[in-house]
Design goal:
By secondary structure, the protein is an alpha/beta fold. Helices cover about 30% and strands about 15% of the residues. The protein has helices spanning about 15-30, 75-85, 105-110, 120-125, 125-130, 140-155, 225-230, 255-265, 290-295, 300-315, 325-340, 350-375, 375-380, 400-405, 450-455, 465-470, 505-525, 535-545, 585-595; strands spanning about 40, 65-70, 95, 165-175, 180-185, 190-195, 205, 220, 245-250, 270-275, 280, 395, 410-415, 420-425, 425-430, 430-435, 440, 460, 490, 530, 605. The protein is globular and about 70 Å long. The structure holds NADPH dihydro-nicotinamide-adenine-dinucleotide phosphate.
């Protein structure tokens, strides 16, 4: 929207040693030996937490046919890949999705206030292709879900899709050169090519609290919001049925930050149970002016915006910031500090110190914001986050902190220990019993668990090789897409590719494009399989390992959370959870050249 005035690095007015000490103390309070095992998998007596509250399951015939391309997952990954395949003339595409419609995360997460945290202009995929103008700088969930459905309709992806269907097995038949896909609906069909985009955060988890099943009130997870109980709707209509209710919410991550203001507006009483506060910076959402949009939306606009965002995020040499959101602000500050280092003192240590200073400065501002917004001093103190900003998911909101000024809202801070236990009448936290009618779990999703556990199925490749065995020591791919021994199978996700975490959809649209080009090539050549060579895969891994590693994101010095495997040593496999060493901008340029030159270096088409 405007050329950027680079922020001047401010004079350091904080006591770095004291902050580091405080961060360490807060981290130590929260470290626990059980790590990821503290959470409950939603199986057996907890399986009802996974029931789809949005779409009834309908009966259908089991499929036993063949498709050119099957995609597992109907979220952004499947949709953008399906769209790119359709553009390449490949229309025989079947998306298999466990939800009742397309949307993935945006199908499930319909909690009130759900909204994208990265600007819609770059976050929402295929805006230009679908001709959709986002209505707000940060679109709300119903608009993003509608965009998913629009992509599905425009690219003909509904006709062949299987909803409310969970893949149970995926196995390569080397004689027929097809993948055999079996599902929980009795399907057993084949596909020449398969894409997998099951998403990183799609298996809800509950805190493993003693007595959790004893609660006699109403309970649900935020990703299965029960509007029949609360009233209201995903577009934010007041939840009138909560007016006479005592509501508790466990968790204060990015989800809670968005739904707490809505709960505060209507709940008779609201108790927010906090283990670790989020950092909550300003949001500054605004409608997108149609005239302004028309003035910038010339052909190729979204690609220009995507490239500009990525360049601002990863030091890709942008001299303007089109997007101007919380993420680009963060990275511009860091870059400004680094730019302030005299040329002859530009060492990795000096750069790291500049990075750290920028983070301390930002977090001081975020803590000062809490004081400026929250009137009760004790509550304000408890809402301050004491860790580096990238230790946990940064949040942005203009009504979350304000909600704690409402007389019906209480913050129940547990000083890092979490809720103690659930009792039939409510919960025990910080030594006090809280009586509740409704208990909402904003407790997040499985992250640090192995791929096969989260996907819900193993992949059996050539010669019976299981993906779980092949990846036992860490993920191995070329470009984050291909795996040797698993022909004609493509992963659609950020790791080992651009790994641009602040705008995941950009990774996915690029991967979708790469896959469409390869499949088109295979079909044109009459090839029955496409496979990365062992050498090319290894060269890709070797290259990844030359990079700087995971930096702040996922650091073991951070307060525990899913970014750092709950503070537990993630083992040697984690060093492979990285991206292209030269950064996301360089990766996108590289992959564009790789898929455009026709050589497909490292692939065998047979
Ligand atoms: P998170 O995993 O981020 O948060 C879970 C919360 O539950 C944490 O506050 C955690 O505390 C808390 N918790 C866990 N156990 C206990 C306990 N025993 N007692 C009290 N509290 C407990 O999940 P979210 O659903 O909030 O977010 C997941 C991710 O989804 C985000 O990080 C983000 O990537 C994505 N997201 C994106 C959004 C967007 O783009 N707009 C919006 C919402 C989510 P602790 O921190 O101490 O572990």
């Amino acid at each position: 929207m405007s050329v950027v005035d680079e922020p001047e690095p401010r004079t350091q007015t904080f006591d770095k040693a004291a902050l580091k000490r405080r961060y360490r103390e807060e981290r130590e309070k929260r470290l626990r030996p059980d790590g990821n095992a503290q959470y409950l998998p939603l199986t057996g007596r907890f399986a009802h937490y996974l029931t789809d509250p949005y779409t009834p399951v309908t009966r259908r015939e089991a499929r036993a046919d063949h498709v050119t391309f099957a995609f597992i997952g109907g979220g952004f990954a499947g949709l953008v890949t399906g769209a790119r395949l359709a553009e390449a003339g490949i229309r025989d595409v079947r998306i298999v999705e466990k939800g009742g419609d397309f949307g993935g995360t945006w199908y499930w997460n319909r909690y009130p206030g759900a909204q994208c945290d990265t600007a819609s202009m770059v976050y929402m995929p295929l805006l230009e292709e679908t001709g959709h103008r986002p209505t707000e700088k940060y679109a709300h969930a119903p608009e993003i879900l509608a965009q998913c459905q629009r992509i599905g309709r425009q690219f003909g992806l509904y006709e062949n899709a299987l909803f409310h269907t969970v893949v149970e097995q995926l196995a390569w038949d080397d004689e027929a050169k097809v993948w055999v896909i079996s599902t929980d609906r009795g399907d057993r069909f084949t596909a020449s090519f398969v894409g997998v985009g099951a998403g990183p955060l799609h298996v809800p988890k509950l805190p493993g609290l003693e007595g959790i099943e004893s609660f006699k009130g109403h309970a649900f997870h935020t990703s299965r919001w029960d509007y029949a109980y609360t009233g209201g709707d995903p577009s934010g209509a007041p939840m009138e049925k909560l007016r006479d209710k005592r509501v508790g919410i466990i968790g204060t991550g990015a989800t809670a930050v968005q739904c707490v203001p809505h709960l505060a507006r209507t709940s008779g009483r609201l108790f927010v149970f906090q283990r670790t506060p989020s950092s909550v910076d300003t949001r500054a959402n605004a409608p997108i002016d149609p005239d302004w949009f028309a003035s910038i939306a010339s052909p190729g606009w979204q690609r220009r915006w995507l490239e500009n965002f990525t360049a601002n995020q990863t030091g890709g040499g942008a001299n303007e910031d089109l997007v101007m959101d919380g993420w680009t602000d963060l990275s511009r500050r860091i870059q400004a500090r680094i730019a302030g280092i005299p040329r002859d003192q530009m060492t990795p240590v000096a750069m790291m110190a500049a990075f750290e200073d920028s983070d301390f400065e930002k977090m001081e501002e975020i803590r000062a914001r809490v004081d400026a917004v929250v009137t009760d001093r004790t509550t304000a103190d408890k809402l301050k986050a004491w860790y580096n900003q990238l230790c946990k998911r940064p949040c942005f909101h203009d009504a979350y902190l304000q909600a704690f000024n409402s007389p019906n809202v209480s913050l129940v801070d547990t000083d890092g220990r979490g809720v103690e236990r659930v009792i039939p009448r409510g919960v025990m936290a910080a030594g006090v019993e809280y009586e509740l009618d409704c208990l909402i779990f904003a407790s997040g999703f499985e992250v640090g668990t192995p791929f096969v556990q989260r996907a819900g199925f193993d992949v059996v490749g050539r010669d019976g090789l299981k993906l779980s065995d092949y990846w036992a020591d860490g993920m191995r791919t070329k470009h984050g897409i291909h795996v040797h021994g698993f022909p004609s199978l493509f992963f659609v996700q950020p790791t080992q590719g651009a790994n641009l975490i602040s705008n995941v959809p950009h990774n996915l649209t690029e991967a979708g494009q790469t896959i469409a080009v390869m499949v088109r090539e295979a079909l044109d050549r009459g090839a029955r399989e496409v496979e990365v060579t062992r050498e090319a895969e290894q060269a890709g891994i070797d290259l990844l390992l030359t990079g700087p590693g995971r930096m702040m994101l996922g650091s073991q010095d951070c307060t525990p959370g899913y970014y750092n495997n709950e503070g537990q040593d993630p083992g040697p496999a984690a060093k492979l959870n990285v991206g292209y060493p030269a950064g996301a901008t360089a990766y996108f340029k590289y992959i564009d050249a790789w898929r455009s030159d026709g050589a497909f270096e490292g692939l065998n088409f047979r």
